[in-house]
From TrEMBL:
Organism: Rufibacter immobilis
Domain Aerotolerance regulator N-terminal, chain residue ranges per copy: 3-69
Transmembrane segments: 6-25, 50-75
Alphabetical list of Pfam families matching this protein: BatA
UniProtKB keywords: Membrane, Transmembrane, Transmembrane helix
Keyword Protein biosynthesis part of the UniProt annotation: no
The keyword Acyltransferase appears for this protein: no
Protein name: Aerotolerance regulator N-terminal domain-containing protein
C-alpha cells in the first residue's frame, strides 16, 4: 500500500508541474501555400472545441471525485474502525442452542465461535470478554453453559460490563429468544459487529412436553405417560424413534411421524412399584442435533388415596363398599390427617356447630367433601348446606316422581378418564330427586330435564360434591355401571397438589408446588453427581420458588434436601426455547437494525472463510474514498495529455 501511495504522489507532483508551468511539446508545421491555411483553421477550431468540452468534463469529474473522496472518508471512516479498533468487548452466546451443528456440520456453533474468537484475538489487541484467555477455548466456553440463563442475557450483560466503544456479539440470534424490541435496545453510542451462526440447513427434533392422564399414581399399576415430540426447521415429515429408560434399562420404545409445524404424541405405560419414585429418561433419535435428545421426568411415589368417613356411617353403605373394594383407597374413621376426601352422610338429627366448623376447616385446607343427603331429613339438610355457604338449594316437590338421568357428556374432562371409547345409547337409571338447585361450579350429571343430579361447588379452598338424591341400597343409580367410576373419579380429582414431572427453568427460576411446613426457615440444597448447589429460595402462595445458581449447567435428576433431610427429587431440563433453532438471517438483522446506520455491522459466520478475512474484506469494501482519490489523479493525467496535444501560438 505504501509504494502505491508514494508512486501516486510522485505522479501527481509531475502532472502539476507540467500543467502549471506549461511544459508542453510544441511542433512547427510549414505550409507550401496559404490556400491550405483556411482548411487548417476550420479543422483546428473543431478539434479545439472538442478538447475544451472534454477538458470541462474532466475538471467537473475531478471536482466530483475529490468531493466524493472527502465525503466517503468521513462517512465510512467509522466503519473502518470496526475492524481495526485497538480494544473491543467480545460477548459470546453460550446458551444451549449454540451446541447445535454449525453450517458444515463438522462442529458445533459454539466451537466455531471459539475458533473465531481466537482469530479475532490474533487480529487485534486483547479484548474484554467473559471467557478466560487460554488455549482450549471450546472447553472454556462449554463450561459457561447454564440452565439459569439465556442468550437474551447477552444484551443486558453488554450494557452492564461494556467499557469500550466497540462490541462484538457472537450468537445464532434465535427468534424465540431475541425479539426485535430487545435487539433495538443496543446502545447508540457504541459500534457493534454481530456475527450470526444461524444454520438454516439442519433440523432439530426434541421432546416438547410430558404429562400424565391421571391425577394420582397408584401402587402396582401402570401409569399412562404421554410424550409430545416437536420439530424445528423441518421441511418434510419425518419418522422419529422415542425410547423410555430407567437406570439404563429400556422400558419401552415407539415411533411417531412429526410433520413440519406440528407436534406428535406418543404413549407409554410405565409400571409403578410401592413406595418408590421412578426417574425416567425419554429420548428421541436425532443424531444431527444431540444436545437436547433427552428429556428427564420423575414419577413420584405412588400412594393410596385416603378417604375419611364418619363414625355414624355404616360400612355396609353402598358408597363405602365401593371404595373399600379398591386397594388404591384407604378408608379411615375419625381423624385422618393424610385423607383428602371426606364422605359425609347428613344425619336426620341435624348437624352440630362443631361439625360445621370442622368441615369448614377441612375445606379451607384444600380438601374435598362428598355430601350424601338423607331422605328423611330434607329440612335439616338444607339448613346445614346454608350454614356451609351453599345458597339457593331447596327441597324438590313431593309431586315429582323418579326421573331418568341424562347420558353423561363425554367431552367433559371428568369423564375422559372413565371412558377410553365413546359409549352410545347408554341406558340411564331413574332416580327420585330430593334437592334442587339452579347453578354450580361444575355439574357432572343431569336429569333429562337438565336439572342437576351431581354438582361440584367451591367453598374456600376446597370442593363440595353434592348429590340431589340419597345413595341408599334402594337407589337404582348404585347398580348402574356409572356408579363406581363416578365415585372413584371424585376421589381422584380431589384438590391435592398437582403432579409436576419435570422443571424447565424460566429466567433461572423453578417452582415446587409441595412445600414442607418448616421449609421457610430451613436451607434447601440440590445434589447432582457429587456436587452441592445452594439456590436462592422464597415461599410464594404455599409454593417454593428457587432461583438456580449459574453453576447448574446440565439437565438431569437432582436430589432435594431440606435441612439435610431428603424430599422428593426433581428433574431439570433444557428450556424448550433453546430447541427452537429458527434464527434471524443476516439480511433480517440488517433490516431490524437499519436505523443504527454504520454503527452496526452484521456478518455471517463461515467455516470456509475465517472471521479475520471477512473483517478485512469488509474493511476493504468500505474504502471507496481511495477509489475516488485515484479517479482524481486519472482526471489530472487525462487533462495533461489533452493539453500536451494542443497547439500553441494561435488564438484560434
Amino acid at each position: 500500500m505504501l509504494p502505491l501511495l508514494v508512486g501516486t504522489a510522485v505522479a501527481a507532483v509531475t502532472l502539476f508541474i507540467i500543467h502549471f508551468f506549461g511544459l508542453r511539446l510544441r511542433q512547427t508545421l510549414e505550409f507550401p501555400h496559404l490556400q491550405f491555411l483556411s482548411v487548417l483553421i476550420s479543422r483546428t477550431r473543431s478539434v479545439r472545441k472538442i478538447y475544451n468540452y472534454f477538458l470541462l468534463f474532466l475538471r467537473l469529474l475531478f471536482i466530483a471525485s475529490a468531493l466524493g473522496a472527502f465525503i466517503f472518508y468521513l462517512v465510512q471512516g467509522n466503519r473502518g474502525q470496526i475492524s481495526t479498533g485497538v480494544k473491543a468487548t467480545v460477548l459470546i452466546d453460550t446458551s444451549w442452542s449454540m451446541q447445535s451443528s454449525s453450517s458444515e456440520k463438522a462442529s458445533t456453533k459454539l466451537t466455531l465461535a471459539a475458533k473465531d474468537y481466537k482469530e479475532l484475538q490474533a487480529l487485534q489487541s486483547p479484548y474484554d470478554t467473559g471467557v478466560s484467555d487460554n488455549k482450549n477455548y471450546d472447553e472454556t466456553l462449554s463450561n459457561h453453559l447454564s440452565l439459569s440463563s439465556s442468550a437474551a442475557d447477552l444484551l443486558e450483560q453488554e450494557d452492564m460490563i461494556n467499557r469500550t466503544s466497540h462490541t462484538y456479539i457472537f450468537s445464532d440470534f434465535q427468534r424465540s429468544v431475541f425479539t426485535e424490541t430487545n435487539l433495538k435496545k443496543l446502545s447508540r453510542k457504541r459500534h457493534y459487529t454481530l456475527v450470526s451462526y444461524v444454520n438454516e440447513n439442519t433440523s432439530n427434533l426434541y421432546v416438547d412436553s410430558v404429562w400424565l392422564d391421571q391425577p394420582t399414581l397408584f401402587p402396582n399399576s401402570l401409569a399412562n405417560v404421554f410424550v409430545q415430540v416437536a420439530g424445528s426447521m423441518l421441511t418434510e415429515g419425518i419418522s422419529v424413534k422415542i425410547t423410555a429408560s430407567e437406570d439404563n434399562s429400556l422400558l419401552g420404545t415407539t415411533q411417531v411421524l412429526v410433520e413440519p409445524g406440528k407436534k406428535a404424541i406418543a404413549r407409554f405405560k410405565i409400571p409403578l412399584t410401592v413406595g418408590a419414585e421412578k426417574q425416567i429418561i425419554f429420548s428421541v433419535e436425532d443424531a444431527a442435533t444431540p444436545f437436547d435428545n433427552n428429556f428427564y421426568v420423575v414419577l413420584p411415589k405412588p400412594t393410596a388415596v385416603g378417604i375419611k368417613i364418619d363414625e355414624a356411617i355404616s360400612t355396609r353403605h353402598p358408597v363405602i363398599q365401593a371404595y373399600a373394594t379398591e386397594p388404591s383407597f384407604t378408608i379411615t374413621k375419625g381423624r385422618a390427617q393424610e385423607a383428602k376426601l371426606w364422605v359425609y352422610e347428613i344425619p336426620s338429627t341435624g348437624v352440630g356447630l362443631s361439625t360445621v366448623a370442622a368441615i369448614k376447616a377441612w375445606l379451607d385446607d384444600g380438601r374435598s367433601l362428598v355430601l350424601l343427603p338423607n331422605a328423611s331429613a330434607a329440612n335439616s339438610t338444607i339448613a346445614f348446606l346454608d350454614q356451609l355457604g351453599l345458597k339457593g338449594i331447596r327441597e324438590e316437590s313431593n309431586q315429582i316422581d323418579a326421573k331418568a338421568l341424562k347420558e353423561p357428556d363425554l367431552s367433559d374432562a371428568f369423564f375422559s378418564q372413565i371412558f377410553e371409547k365413546e359409549v352410545k345409547n347408554m341406558r340411564m337409571p331413574n332416580v327420585k330427586p330430593l334437592l334442587r338447585w339452579e347453578s354450580a361450579y361444575h355439574t357432572i350429571l343431569k336429569f333429562e330435564d337438565a336439572t342437576p343430579f351431581l354438582s361440584t361447588f367451591r367453598i374456600g379452598n376446597g370442593q363440595v360434591h353434592l348429590f340431589a338424591s340419597p345413595l341408599t341400597s334402594n337407589s337404582s343409580f348404585i347398580s348402574h355401571p356409572l356408579f363406581v367410576p363416578v365415585l372413584y373419579q371424585l376421589a381422584l380429582t380431589t384438590s391435592a397438589a398437582p403432579i409436576v414431572l419435570s422443571h424447565a427453568p424460566q429466567n433461572g427460576t423453578i417452582t415446587i408446588p409441595i412445600v414442607p411446613k418448616d421449609v421457610a426457615n430451613q436451607q434447601v440444597a440440590l445434589y447432582n453427581n457429587g456436587q452441592t448447589y445452594i439456590p436462592d429460595q422464597k415461599i410464594f402462595q404455599n409454593q417454593l420458588q428457587m432461583t438456580l445458581p449459574k453453576e447448574i449447567s446440565k439437565p438431569g435428576f437432582y436430589t432435594v434436601t431440606v435441612a439435610g433431610k431428603e424430599v422428593p427429587s426433581i428433574a431439570l431440563n433444557i428450556p424448550r426455547v433453546e430447541s427452537k433453532l429458527e434464527g434471524y438471517t443476516v439480511g433480517e438483522l440488517k433490516e431490524i437494525l437499519a436505523e443504527y446506520g454504520n454503527k452496526v455491522n452484521v456478518l455471517e459466520a463461515d467455516e470456509k472463510i475465517s472471521l479475520q478475512k471477512q473483517l478485512q474484506m469488509e474493511g476493504t469494501s468500505s474504502s471507496l474514498w481511495k477509489y475516488c482519490l485515484i479517479l482524481c489523479f486519472m482526471c489530472l493525467i487525462g487533462e495533461a495529455v489533452i493539453l500536451s496535444t494542443k497547439k500553441s501560438g494561435s488564438s484560434i
